[in-house]
Amino acid sequence: MARYKDAVCRLCRREGEKLYLKGQRCHGPKCAVERKPYAPGRSGGDQFGSRPRKPSDYALQLREKQKCRRIYGVLEKQFRTYVRRAMRKKGVTGELLLQYLERRLDNVVYRAGMAASRAEARQLVRHRHFAINSRVVDVPSYDVRVGDLVQVRPDSRKQVPFVAALNAAGGRTMPAWLNVDWDQFQVRVEADPTRTDIDTRVNEQVIVEFYAR
Questions:
Q1: Using CA atoms, how far apart are residues 154 and 141, in angstroms rounded to an integer?
Q2: Pairwise CA distance, residues 165 & 113, whole Å
Q3: What's residue 48's pLDDT?
Q4: Beta sheet of 149-152, edge-to-edge order
Q5: CATH number given to 56-102+202-213
Q6: Quick one: DSSP state of residue 40?
Q7: Angle at 91 between CA 87 and CA 94, to 5 degrees
Q8: CA angle in degrees (0–180, nearest 5) for 3-8-48
Q9: Which fold has domain 104-191?
Q10: Up-side HSE of residue 167: CA atoms within 13 Å toward CB?
Q11: Which of 4, 117, 121, 192 has the highest Cβ tally under 10 A?
């Protein structure tokens, strides 16, 4: 399976903002955006060379699309599939796109506070630490539906990532569409997330316009 193997901090620097791809590191002084607040490949922060140019509409759409992909850790082919599904379904296309991304199993695990980042959530899912409705699922892109119960397997609950997540649980605000029960190490999907529930800083309409060209 294809996956990004280079330094993820370069992705944040390319977008010019924190995408929070490395958990706690993004909140500390080691964050690459704090240390090098300019795009990778540019010397000393000279991002535009001698003549700054206003980006075109296409460039703005492309950057917004790339930023969204990188936040959720989705490659281009799969992201395009989500966009096409959203376009075919009745409703607001941009909001539907974000719903599909939010309902990914790795994102639900991350939103519930059971992983420090989406990358860690993907790894935990791949290592078969989670069950959905009592059935073990190891596919990070699994589409979690309303009413589904996501549980940490009993044999996994004493492992370091979950102990750390439990200790940090009190300081996190849970999304309204998820009901997290740390006594049972489980999270239930109560509803589909609405746009107001999703704090991802992207302009989804611009992304839809990019693919509608």
A1: 22
A2: 6
A3: 47
A4: 135-136, 130-132, 149-152, 186-189, 178-181
A5: 1.10.1050.10
A6: T
A7: 60
A8: 115
A9: 3.10.290
A10: 7
A11: 121
Q: How many degrees, rounded to 5, is the angle at CA 120 between CA 130 and CA 112?
A: 60
Of 196, 195, 194, 208, nearest in space to 65 by CA: 208
The three-class DSSP label of residue 151 is: strand
Nearest to residue 24, comparing CAs of 136, 171, 132, 141? 171
- pLDDT at residue 99, as a whole number: 97
Tell me the average confidence (pLDDT) per consecutive run of 10 residues in the chain, 213 residues long.
Answer: 58 60 56 61 52 80 91 94 96 96 96 92 96 97 97 95 86 87 95 93 94 89
In this structure, the number of other CB atoms found within 10 A of the CB of residue 134 comes to: 7
Report yes or no on whether pTM surpasses 0.85.
no
pLDDT of residue 160: 92
